[in-house]
TrEMBL record:
The encoding gene: paaA
A Pfam cross-reference name: PaaA_PaaC
Enzyme Commission code(s) on record: 1.14.13.149
Protein's name according to its UniProt entry: 1,2-phenylacetyl-CoA epoxidase subunit A
SUPFAM superfamilies in the cross-refs: Ferritin-like (SSF47240)
Origin: domain of life: Bacteria
GO molecular function: phenylacetyl-CoA 1,2-epoxidase activity
Enzyme class, UniProt record, top EC level: oxidoreductase
InterPro entries: Aromatic_CoA_ox/epox, Ferritin-like, Ferritin-like_SF, PaaA, PaaA_PaaC
Organism: Aromatoleum petrolei
Length: 311
């Protein structure tokens, strides 16, 4: 603790300025950022799996090329975010170890299965749509390296959202069977997508402090509401309905009301008991183990290069 540095830090936060890697920061601020940025990085990497599942089964060459690019983007986002977390003094090995041993959290959404091709469109539209809604305010968060990483990530997420919506528009112009497939995917993904924003503000233990520190610029519930309001209009254009009979416009509030979220399901998924948790973790651990020889070869190559330089 250092009162002088603390005052300087507080003043910078209050003025809406950025904290940089080499600046003094309270230990709790550093820990919160490591927690959030690493959870975010893990989400990007685990998020490659549900969609990777469909690369070999994309219906056309064009859709395959788009999906490949998108899944690669997610991998890039993960690496970008691990690098941002490393500026806070943690190592990538520590972070990955926490993921592989099941200690780290990642977004609940990636524990749901992708059953049909329409799921790929719905992930782009709803899941990436929700992700952008949450991530645009993070471009202005108080930690410089995280904020700057988010700028590029949001641009790419925007392409992801559009490709999903475009895929769904195409399917909706197809056969009755294709339209039914889209509606079924919307029915399965809607509630998990609005859970992505996290618990209600009153039940969110980290919100008050993260808002005070300028990490969280818009609250979980406000972002969820913004997402619902925007998405309902897009659903009309698409010609699908949301699986929530209580979803309706409230003129007084100027927002859509919506039904009760099943928080038991949310916490069950977050705590490892969703449909996909075991498979997702197993796939990540296998990828890590299968990649061991690449890491060893890279280290050996570097060792030889350094040795040659010192000859
Ligand atoms: N899935 C899994 N865990 C979640 C989720 C979720 N959808 N929402 C909240 N949680 C966890 C939080 O991580 C926190 O756990 P912890 O204290 O053990 O770390 C706990 O539930 C309580 O939630 P909050 O107090 O609201 O936590 P926080 O202030 O961190 O807010 C939020 C959660 C909004 C997700 C925030 O961390 C955030 O903005 N993260 C960056 C964005 C992100 O990670 N997106 C990933 C999905 S999008 C994508 O990758 C394509």
């Amino acid at each position: 603790e250092n009162p002088e540095y603390q005052a300087e830090f507080d003043a910078k936060i209050d003025a809406g300025g950025y904290i940089e890697a080499k600046d003094w920061m309270p230990e709790a601020y550093r820990k919160t950022l490591v927690r959030q940025i690493s959870q975010h990085a893990h989400s990007e990497i685990v998020g490659m799996l549900p969609e990777g599942n469909w690369i070999t089964r994309a219906p056309t060459l064009k859709r395959k090329a788009i999906l490949l690019a998108k899944v690669q983007d997610e991998g890039g986002h993960g690496l970008y975010l691990y690098a941002a977390a490393e500026t806070l003094g943690v190592s990538r090995d520590e972070l990955l170890d926490a993921l592989h041993t099941g200690k780290a959290k990642y977004s609940s959404i990636f524990n749901y299965p992708t059953l049909t091709w329409a799921d790929i469109g719905v992930i782009g539209w709803l899941v990436d749509g929700a992700a952008i809604m949450n991530q645009i305010p993070l471009c202005k968060c108080s930690y410089g390296p995280y904020a700057r990483a988010m700028v590029r990530i949001c641009k790419e997420e925007s392409f992801h959202q559009r490709q999903g919506y475009d895929l769904l528009l195409t399917m909706m112009k197809g056969t009755d069977e294709q339209r039914a497939m889209v509606q079924d995917a919307v029915n399965r993904w809607w509630w998990p997508s609005i859970m992505m924003f996290g618990p209600h503000d009153k039940d969110s233990p980290n919100s008050a402090q993260s808002s005070r520190w300028g990490i969280k610029r818009i609250s979980n519930d406000d972002l969820r509401q913004k997402f619902i309001d925007a998405t309902v209009e897009q659903a009309k254009v698409l010609g699908v309905t949301m699986p929530d009979p209580e979803l309706k416009w409230n003129a007084e509030r100027g927002h859509h009301d919506y039904g009760a979220i099943d928080w038991d399901e949310f916490w069950s998924v977050v705590n490892g008991h969703g449909q996909g948790n075991v498979d997702r973790l197993a796939a990540r651990v296998k990828a890590w183990e299968d990649g061991a020889w690449v890491r060893e070869a890279a280290l050996e190559h570097e060792r030889k290069r350094v040795a040659r330089e010192h000859q």
